[in-house]
Amino acid sequence: MPLSAKGTTGGNAHIIMFLARNRDREIYQHTIEQKFCITRSTASRVLALMEKNGLIARESVAHDARCKRIVLTDKADAIVADLKANGERVERLLVDGFTQTEQDALHDYVERMRANIERAQHEFEHQTSSQTPSTAAPEYSEAEVINTKEENK
Fold this sequence. Notes:
Blueprint: H1 10-21, H2 29-36, H3 40-52, E1 56-61, E2 64-72, H4 74-94, H5 100-129, H6 142-151
Antiparallel strand pairs: 1-2
């Protein structure tokens, strides 16, 4: 793991990379809640800690004073650069010995799989958003998710 990311938890790294990939969008706490399937209180706690650690900043938006857009800081940008470089290094190791044709084919397969995942995710979000509150899937706290994962090991 890159040195700049050593103090960053896996969850924080995922949020940082999500924010980095979506710089062209306005991302709010509720966006993080939906994307990572976490409760409002968990998102609030995680984002507050990330803000305290200088990884994100919350900026007011003109159209709604209650909304705070989440943006990366320079400190987080350094982590993004290191994580990307590390990812590229790992990718080079993974495809070592592959021909360029094989690498191109693999890249195509992975991109198609990613598109399938995104399509399925959008379909799921559409289905769950059309459900009434009484039939919607329950939200779980971070602790409940961790406990469930531990029980399934």
